[in-house]
DNA sequence: ATATAGTGTGTCAGATTTACACCATTAAAT
DNA sequence: ATTTAATGGTGTAAATCTGACACACTATAT
């Protein structure tokens, strides 16, 4: 069964690669599609941009409708414009990523009928995705891998208060390699934008680690000279 | 006089920021528009994407039509999708940059009527541009500033054979700061991807400098481990 | 009390980065 | 022939950063 697209000459869409970090694993949000084409396939959350909304606003709206998530800091990273990337017509898609704290989020679930479900899936074991979404994911993943080294994006994935070990294991998960504990701590602390709290980790059956917090004010003060304002997050 | 846009529901366009280096200055290509809106204004080369061409192909075609330049390595860098960025309707534009050798290029000139003329203009002294093109330029400029430090893009701006002083002055022009000559040379040569030629500079009234050539084969060999394949040029 | 599991810490060697100044070469001017 | 003007080309030492590496401490569970 084929459902016709609206009769636009050109259609824009947004696709979102939403990263989260849980149980030591990096994950992304997928949805199960409820519409042709690719009905029942897994896909990145994405949909068509309306005439009267900016693409940044569209990205927020669409993500909300498909997953129930709001107020993420979405960042555009690439636009995919092959002629035949959509089987039913010409659809150019602008891809966005965002990083969020999974813990403490209410469960993700679609608020429209376009998706049957939404869920977190580890990036290391992704199934085949609808359209060219596997390629979109890979491009986005490479982007954040690089960005991790010069932008404070790690902190968006962690709870507000975190231990240095958690921070390290996030870096290890994204970069997919082991880091030296002492060197990692020395370096992170040397930047001066981590604030040591008077609190300790709770509920562990071993020596509790100190908790830290990312101090964005200090970060921008320290790095303001290096920062080149740029739509694409530098 | 207002010319109506074609009755697309949505229109895609491409805008190009084409960098060149001449007389120690970084320049970009501008056109003088020959159509409403913004008739007679200066603008980035840009036009509408056809239904049956990928955006990458469209970028090449459009640049050719407006400037006569062909076969540049165009790189997408950002998509601009504010609702009112175009006064006559909804136009989302994908911005590309490219770097080229000005010297030795035949003169740039439009092959369609959409532009009256095309010419190089120093980036340090840009006039107000049509649409949001000033913003597009700035975003693109910041992109290449960063990229200069981890991608071999400088060599695309220089003639095939160049002196180390030329290379340095290009870096200085892009980064807008002075570099130390000895350190710059030591570092560049240490990478091992510059090939020293048996030739010297000609036609100067002082000691002629050695000429070098960028060896792309060596470059990729040396850096293949660091490279993360990525649509956006890493 | 002791076993367990993860926390938290310092040093040294090697590599990289930065700062810094003078003689060499060429063509043009005298 | 000599001088001048302009740029080419080179080395070293100090400071900083990076990477490798191992063990005692602490909180809890039993």
Automatic annotation (TrEMBL), chains A, B:
CDD domains per the record? NUDIX_NadM_like
SUPFAM superfamilies membership: Nudix, Winged helix' DNA-binding domain
User: What highest taxon heads this organism's lineage?
Assistant: Bacteria
Enumerate the PROSITE patterns for this protein. Answer: NUDIX
Keywords for the protein's UniProt record, in alphabetical order: Hydrolase
Task: Output one GO MF annotation.
Answer: hydrolase activity
The residue ranges of the Nudix hydrolase domain are 9-143
Q: Which Pfam families match?
A: NUDIX (PF00293), WHD_NrtR (PF21906)
Question: PANTHER family given for it?
Answer: ADP-RIBOSE PYROPHOSPHATASE, SLR1690 PROTEIN
Specify the protein name.
NUDIX hydrolase
